[in-house]
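Subject: complex prediction, re-run

Hi both,

The earlier run crashed halfway through, so I resubmitted it with identical inputs.
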Amino acid sequence: MSGLQIVNGLAGLLIVTSLLVVVARKPSQSAKFYALQSLVLVAVFVALGSATNAPQLYVWAAVAFVTKVVLVPVIMARSFGRLSDERLGSGERISPAVTVLLAAVVVLLCTLIISGVTLPAAAGIKPALAISLAHFFFGLACIVTQRNILKQVFGYCLMENGSHLTLALLAGSAPELVEIGITTDAVFAVVIMVILATQINRKLATLDADQLTTLKG
Amino acid sequence: MPTLTQVSLAFVQALLLLAAAPLFTGITRVLRAKMHTRRGPGVLQDYRDVIKLLRRQNLQPPAAGFAFRAMPTVMIAALLTIAMAVPVLTRAVPIPGLGDLITVIYLFAIVRFFFSLSGLDSGSSFAGIGGSRELTLGVLVEPTLVLSLLVCALLAGSTDIGAMGEAIATGHVRSAGAVLLAGAAAIFACYFELGKLPYDMAEAEQELQEGPLSEYSGPSLALLKVAMGFKQLLILAFVFAIFVPYGSSSDTSLVGLLIGLAAFIAKIAVVAVVLGVVENSVARARFRLTPRHSWFGLGIASLAFVFYISGL
Amino acid sequence: MVASDLPPLLLLSPLVFALVIFAMPTSGRSARLIELLHLVSIVGTLVLALTTVGYVLSHGTLVTFGDWLMVDPLAAIFVGLIGVVGCLTGFYSIGYIRHDVAHGELTAVKQKLYYGFFNLFLFTMLLVVTANNIVMMWVGIEATTLGSAFLVGIYGKGTSLEAAWKYLIICSVGVAFGLYGTVLTFANASASIDPHQAVLWTSILAHAQDLDPTLVKIAFVFVLIGFGTKAGIFPMHAWLPDAHSEAPSPVSGLLSGVLLKCGLFVIIRYYAVTMKAIGPEFPQSILLVLGVLTVAVSAFLVFVQHDFKRKLAYHSIEHVGLIVIGLGVGGPLGIAAALLHTINHSFTKALLFCGSGNVLQKYGTRDLRSVKGILRTAPVTGLFIMAGALALAGFPPFNVFVSEFMVFAAGLDAGYPKLMILVALLFTITVAALVDIIAHSVLGKAPENMEKSDSSWLSLAPMGVLLALIMVFGVAMPRPVGDILRQATGIVMDQGHATATATPIEHVAAKK
Amino acid sequence: MIALALASILLPTVGAALIALSPRSASKRLGQIFAGLATACLLVLAYQFSVGGKIPAEYSVINFGGVEILGFGVDTVSVLVACAVVGIGFLISIYSGGYLDAGNREHPDIVRRRYFAFLSLFIGAMAGLVFSTTVIGQLVFFEISGVCSWALIGYYEKPKSLYSAAKALIITHIASLGLYVAASVMFLETHTFALSAIGGLSETAKTIVLLAILVAAWGKSAQLPFHMWLPDAMEAPTPVSAYLHAASMVKVGVYIFARALMSSNGAPELVGYVCTIMATITLVYGFIMYLPQCDMKRLLAYSTITQLSYMFLGLGLSVFGSQMAFNGAIAHLFNHAFAKTLFFLVAGALSYTTGTRMLPLLRGVLSKSPLLGIAFVVAALAIAGVPPFNGFFSKFAIFAGGFEVAQQHPLLMVLLVIALLESVGSFAWFLKWVGWTVPGRPSEAVAAASPVPLSMQIVLITLIVMAVCSSFIAAIWLG
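This time it finished cleanly. Structure:
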């Protein structure tokens, strides 16, 4: 397999791992899968870096490894383990089976959309590009279909990984500062979400987004 | 035309598998007993059962018809055909043309069809329910199996089981992600077919899915008992041939065949252990839950298909 | 000091003060010191912002920090807006937060955090509007969410946490769309220009005609969804009423007055690029449809609300819709009208949110059904709310009338008479809603045992200034404002300096 | 002169601000003083203007980017109407000083700052509207007067009155969209807001602008289909009703349309037809609505609607080339202001003294209070158009002008005949109520009436005099 094929294949794995993140029963379990997924992302960066001969992607990979494989999952796993909501159950609005089918549909649609792009940078990596877009929307779907607010945080992380991958695929040559800015923002976002979720759990004793409906109209 | 070697290999392989079927079920029983820390019957118990049954009288319910009577024979025959079609000891299909993916899947479908038909034909309501359940299960599992194997076939560029195994084993397929997903889905579907916990307990005859067996007796029952184990073995062989053909011989030399046999036995052993562990760590799922799980499998298979389309 | 130091200084000032405030000890005595620091910070920001605006007005666009920071006339409008509204709501905060601390709703620690985050919030918004680097623009927008989410949830009550959560999730998700749009634009541009230039908005605009049209369209849609979430455009507005109603009132004023406008600012930036790349038709039709939908939906929601601040929040959505319509109508007149309306709405809405804060502290509720007779219990506040509500309803001689009229005229000019009349009728619904506030809450019989006492001068003074601004912009808009609007319109239309010297009105004349 | 015109606008506005800031006890005096000052200014202006040979003049006040936003113009019509609206505003201020007190039988009340502040602002806005020479200026004052009327109608803060106030505001605001359209179209066509530019528009644009202004005018003047706010607006304190429905609010509509016609340099006939037909329809509708009314104020409300229709009829007829009809309409505007104010104030005085406005309860007013009895008769006859009272002359001018142009336009003849029938009908109907109310033995309510305060008496007498003289003033002034 050529370098770009490896990139494409690894991108496919991203969807699989994100499915695991979404389908996992416990948020702390999801955190582990998220670390796995980020590891795949790092691998994509490295593979892409070697395939397109773009050394700055190694820097990205390193940054992503520190933040996404280590930092964020550790924060999540440690804080989410302490939160619980007995009444919530699995907190899924749709069953895992439908989730998987949804993922398939999303990938299909994104493939169709991406097939129209004529950008030269996208030539060899259209599948991966489609996956990155699909990954983004899959994250969105996770936020919409999960009642557990902790799962929603994961949804955000998945979206963020998706756009990150697009950035790397299409614009691997961006200044490093850009990448660092984006990553830092994402880490802060997760930290604040975690803090807020903890406060909500402490104050309202729930993790169920459907319980957060006092404000209406 | 297949050569004589090929034909004889096919026959030998089929008979070998048929003969080994009670052994296989016996071993899994023993394993299970060990895990329950109890002393079960010995490894050869299933042979003893079969022999005992063969000596009994063949009874059938008054309402039973042709399908009921023909089923054991048809089942064994179909399974034997599969056994000749699936590559077990070799990489290549023993009889070229017979080992086509679609043929094999349909042969399995025929087995299922007659099995459930006999339940309906027996006139017993218990057996009837069992038969209809068997059909439901088929409806649920079959699409996943077909879709995932179709993806594999598309990726390998051939519907020949041997060629598929070859392509996948050597990595000559375009999309690793799709293969992994399709493999996962296919194996998942096959697990249903094995009739193991949490979806079924093939050896406990009072379980509803085995309902069609309840009206059989004597030699027919003996045949069916052998056929059940035979089917499990064949499913495993089928999966191995496509996804883990490692170890099987690429030619028909004796040494190669022996190595292939050893590899096959090793794979079976590993699977038996894994199955044993799985069966002992889960409880029987309600039949109602089965569709959910099978839908999940279908989802995985469709994802694999989409991956194939997007060219990952 | 050189002029190119102005933008970095402008950014650093609130950031440094925020950090200093965070680092302060939290004893009872330091509270006054923190307030002082906060005051110095917001006044400093105001002075720096106005200096920057003045410089831009007299010397033209200011680019610095390796081209990453840029204040052009378009940005200058928003810089000025952040400076003015930030300073006034910041000043209003002092009295407001003191009251809350005195009544035990906030602790001393929360008070410190409030001022810290307030300044941080100002910093992030300034970052957005001074950014020339599109990725930095995104980072800024995302950072505004993170900075202000705490402010929204500061009371720590169930409802405020809920609002903060919705705000955080919806905006983060929305802004993730914005990131995607940003990345697509960047990738699109880096195909034809050097990647280090491709992140700069100015160079993207300069090379807009080389971009891939499909990607430009996709990116614009993503940007519109993403930053439109922040701006409160229907159907991405769901966070807005919750966040606005649960935040402390000065923060609501800041959210509605400035933050929404920052989202719009980014959209305007991309709008300019898109118009130049693929012509005005595609972006304008999307904007028009979204704008009209936003106005239509929010008009009815404004009417049915009983919560004072929610009503105002939905009203903000409606006005954002009007600004979007102005942009969608396009042409020099439409864009100038949209920009002017941005300014006018900010002042008016800040005034009303501050007023609602006074009401909340006086009556202990935001439910308009139980707030009666403000004019009798707190006459000055009542008068301010009355004037603010009439201004917001679009009555002359207040400022909103002027820009609403301009949008209307621009719409007729662009050939949408039916649409504009529909929009005007929808706005009539909110007129009813606003006079309803006056009729039932400002007037009416005051509760029996409520003594007559207005809020402290600390709260009333900034409201007075806002009202004065509203009147000034309504009766006689200062000439510099007109100049800067004209130049900004020229930037959005990308007509350079050659034609930008003409007034919007003369543009129309020239067209005929 | 412009200084005087500006003063008449700014003085009441400043007065309003002062009233808002000063203690409540001073509000009454302040309101009266500033309204008086404004009236004085206008009288001086009128004198100077007529001495100076009645030369029209225009002045720009606010310009933006080379475009005139706000300008004021002095000519015969604007001075005449300004004198009426501001002068009556002054009379109302005086009357209100007596009406709003604890001695009021129907609405005992202490006067609030809000009342005089908004009344003062209203007077200023009316003066501004009258002198305005730009559409945008008209729009601004149109909207301000809308807000003032809203505040005054809802003055008693009862749910019903608040509802009526909001209704008036919203309906007139919707109608104001006509002015928005007119202003926008004019600006886009000619790049100016000046009314004088209407004459230079293309035929289509002119039709659009005039019809749009007509829509706005219907809204303010309570013509069909925007009439429904007016009867409800009777929830206002009676002096306010008098001002709103006689001199200010409703006259805004007629006036802006008249000004537009004056500047239009020959309006399209379509506009004339729309205007006359709708006027006639409203006329008939208003007359039919007389019949079931017992509340004196509601009766007057519908009477106002029909009288306004006469003015629109006159304006519409002028489109076909009759200057006489136009002058008649303007004169009717002027005359009706005094007559209707008088009638409302009589109603107010009756409710002040007797506590009721229900006509069936009121009998024998003349013997109990001769002043009120005489005022009632004068007002009723003036409204019904009986010589020598003012209503007769202006109506006569409208009809005379109308029959003159109707020779060429048969449809107009039909409309005029209908209007004439209405005129006779309303005369009969008012006569019936005069006969019921004024002579004879006092009914229970009237017999128990309290005396009329002095300030109210003065105002009533002034208005009775004006009800006789105003048409002569107008005739002389308009030439």
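The CA atoms of residues 397 and 474 of chain C lie 6 Å apart.

- K.
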